[in-house]
Predict the structure.
Amino acid sequence: MTEAWIAARFVHFAAAMAVFGTGAFRVYAFAGSTIPADAQARAALDARFRQAMLIAAVVVFLSALAIVPPIAIEMAGSAAAAFDPGVWHAVLFETEFGTVWCWHMGAAVALMVLCAMPRRRWQAGAATLAALLVLASIGLTGHAAMDMGGGATHEINQMAHLTAGGLWLGGLVPLGMLLRRAVRPDGAAYVPLAQTALPHFSQIGYAAVALLLITGTVNSLMLVGNFHALVGTPYGRLLMVKIALFLTMVGLAFVNRFRLMPRLTGQTAAIVPLRALYRSVVAEQALGLAILAVIAVLGTWPPAIGHMAM
């Protein structure tokens, strides 16, 4: 059942980050853009973003439910617990995890409702706020909620880490959707939108990467403790894989920012660098999914600091 637990965690993290990243992108990407010619393309793109958010919100809720049976098995020590209503009740209503997870699933329901509502001026902001609550509340579970000396500091740090990850990794989803439309033969109307959105995404990306570096370092110190544990335990070695993937993503992002984005001048001249950017964003998305897969596994393993203490 460990494989099912890992798979459910992976899908849950990916969907939660995608829905928050897409919502945030809707809020900041075109801020200040008042070009009338962009209105029709922007409306069509926003409708696609809303649809993507609704799908991701449904996946968040379903994967949150799918995580409960493996937790029940882990707590009860029996595979039969996955289908035992009594164990489910105990997990959800008699544990600290269950209390947090019930609120988490409640926020996911609110998110689905907001994403399904007809478009209103406040809808994008409200849905994004709900998505932030869903994503950040994951930080109140798992290793951050364990009694390892960090307490509320560890939980707050993990919530900030997840939020930053959602802004960057999750933001790659709508950015990829926009660039895909812009590089199509009939996508000329989306080129100005891409030219507007890319600098805004880049600025948000700087802040997100800086926050990821800070909070990731704090997490590593709390869960690994020292260099010997980093290289001498399975948890530490897999964490190094995550770090290597993250640094590769940062390298790609810097290439995009300082080599390709300066070439986005003029609608015709923008097509070639936009195609290169789109391919790079797809590569970043693949690396991001690999990072989430590593995170899904790490969350089911005991931290290296506990292993080394034994």
